[in-house]
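Q: I have 299 residues here and want to know how they pack in 3D. Can you give me a structure?
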Amino acid sequence: MWMYLGLLAALFLGLHNLCKKHAVQGNEVFPVLLGTISSGFLLLLPFFIGSHYYPEYTKKIGFHITTISWETHGYIFIKSMIMTTSWVLAYQALKHLPITIVTPIRSAGPFFTFIGAILIYQEKPNLLQWIGFFLIIFSVVLYSKIGKKEGINFKRNKWIFAIIGATFLGASSGLYDKFLIQSLSLNPQTLQFWFCWYTVLILLVILSLTWFNNKEKRKKFTWRWTIIAVGVLLQTADYFYFKALQDPDALIMLLSAIKRSQILIAVVIGGLVFKEKNKRKKLVPLFGIMIGVFLILYS
């Protein structure tokens, strides 16, 4: 069941990436990010209120947000710091790079998670899983070659380094999620609600310093319906992902790889919607990544 939940998470993440590209394209990054996280927070807020006034009902429907210690709040705040940094880097990169370049680079995330799973959680991959992970990395290298044809130099373009940094931090957060869900016994909705709350606070501090007092930047911001869609789709994907992680048998390195199947939506549909270049050439490394995911799933 945890693998199927991972595939559901991948489906909503793929749709989330398409909406995110539309929301951030030619727009101010920080207010877009604040809008998406705030949308997710408002989606979860009724469950928090219901958990306080109608605890039996929220427990019955499976969306009860539990009371947690200050120490646990601290652990969730660390996750918020990690993911806020990752999202800021990713949103900036997505603003300046094609989605068909950004999404496959992010597909290298399972490789970082793979190493962490071995070192931290002593998860033991077999030969086919090794082949699958290195096939994913090789396919990302092929994407870099195609990217050069679009005027994107992977060695000199700072947005490439931004998306690589975002990918590493995102993988670190994935490893941290297993600790939060399994070691601290947090349920998905409790983790999601407090994570959104602390992320909103962090973004408000950043915006107070960089955006609220800057009239020119405020004029550049455009509200789009996809900002709300991004927040709702992300929280839906995270819910299925965290539910999968609740299973004691769930392997974080395999879940991370399963989530990469979202690139099928981003590259194929995204390439058509945003009319990006070299779509056919990008299908070759795309299939390489899909085969890598397949080897990991069915090895």
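Q: Anything worth noting?
A: Residues 6 and 258 are 6 Å apart (CA to CA). The chain has a mean pLDDT of 83.
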